Every structure is written in structure tokens, then in C-alpha cells.
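Case study: Methionine aminopeptidase.
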Amino acid sequence: MITLKSPREIKEMQKSGQILAGLHIALRDIIKPGISSWEIEKFARKYFKENDAIAEQIGFEGYEYATCVSVNDEICHGFPRKGLILKDGDLVKVDTVVNYHGAMSDSCWSYVVGKSTPEIDRLMEVTKEAMYKGIDQAQVGNRIGDIGAAIQKYVEDENGYGDVREFIGHGIGPTMHESPNVPHYGEAGKGLRLKEGMTITIEPMVNMGTWESIMDDPNGWTARTADGSLSCQFEHTIAITKEGPKILTSQDKKRDAKYLLED
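Here is what the predicted structure looks like once written out:
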């Protein structure tokens, strides 16, 4: 079912999104060579508690953690682990969902541990820009396919990377995963028409090599690139309004000025 949110409900989701954005900003100083990915999980749990928020992922279909921490060739749903020590040049994706007094927000961000490389910098730049190209298509009257087509064209045709198909965006609120599905590939002009009040995630996952993935057999959750190449992801929760798409999980008010709700 698709739920259309009122302006008041969208404002409440923005409060949740601001908590989530604050976590991602704080992680910039936490993620460094020598820490374990479990330390990211511990920090997130503490941060949510201090902000009177709930880590909504815990218990979802049996998932045990507040965060997904996916490293290098892990595309998504990586488990935070005490034995995984981060090192210089690792590409880390941290994905989590916040419930703040019933209002949901979902955002993934990518981080380089220590010193980066030009190849990683380019992959991250393309992935983030792909997200924004998708957001620009999230207009009242457009269709779901317009979002995916813009992302796929930019990622694959213009930059030669792999645009992951198996994992997609989704509606959000009042539960974590709702209709509609929001693929990051597709055909312009096709699919569900977007309406004012929809709240969705746009979260492209971009691989340096093939778009194809394989599942990590030991845990049954984690997806990896089929060819072992690096994978990157950025995700925002957005509201579709008559004034255009509004980012509810913004970390950069200057970059996102045209996408922010009016106070």
C-alpha cells in the first residue's frame, strides 16, 4: 500500500531524517584505520539512544543490528563485525533506518577509510551524482521509470560502471519498507505515476565492474559484486511535493538548498 503524507507528517519525517543525517556526519570522525566495523554499530546505537530514536532495522525479518556496514565488494546488508578491522583505502557503506516517535527515515552513506585513491573518488562522485539525478526526476506527474532511467543512463552509458539491479529503493513511512518499489534502472515514461505526498528512498548502488551480485552464503544477507569489484552507495529519503522533491535526510544544506523544506 502507498500512503500519501500530509505536510505535518513530512515535517515529522524530516525530524527523523535530521537525526539520521547527524549520525552520518558524526561518523566522518569515527571511521578511520584500525577500528572494527562493530565500533560503527556501537556508536550508532549510542547516538540513537541519546537522540530518543529507535534503530528500526533491529528485528526486521530477523536482522540483529542497528546498521548495515558493507565494505569494499560488499554491495549491501553487510553485518557489523568485531573481527573486521578497517584499513587504509577501504570503502565503507553505512546504511540505517531511524524511527523517531513513529516517523521513519532511511539513508546510506559511503566513506573512505584513511587515504583514498582517484579511482575510489571517481566511483563515489558518480554514485552520489547518480542519486541526485534520480532525485531530480522525482516530480509530481513523473513516473517511477523516469527516476531509474536517469540513474542508469548516467551510471552505465556515461560512466561505464555497473548499476545494481537486484536491490532498489522503496516507499517509507509509516513502516520501513512500503510500496512503491523504486528501481535505479528502467525506461523513462513507464511505471507508477508520482503523486504529491509520496515519501520514497532513492539509493543507487554502483559497482566499479559488473552490475551483477552474488549472495554471501554464510549469513544469507550480504550481497557482493559478482566480479569482486568495489561497490558504492548513497541514499536519501525524499518527499514528493508540488514544489519539487524535498530531501529529508540532508547532510549539506548548501548543496541541497533547492531540495529543502521551507521552515
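For the exam, be able to explain this: DSSP finds four helices and 15 strands in the chain.
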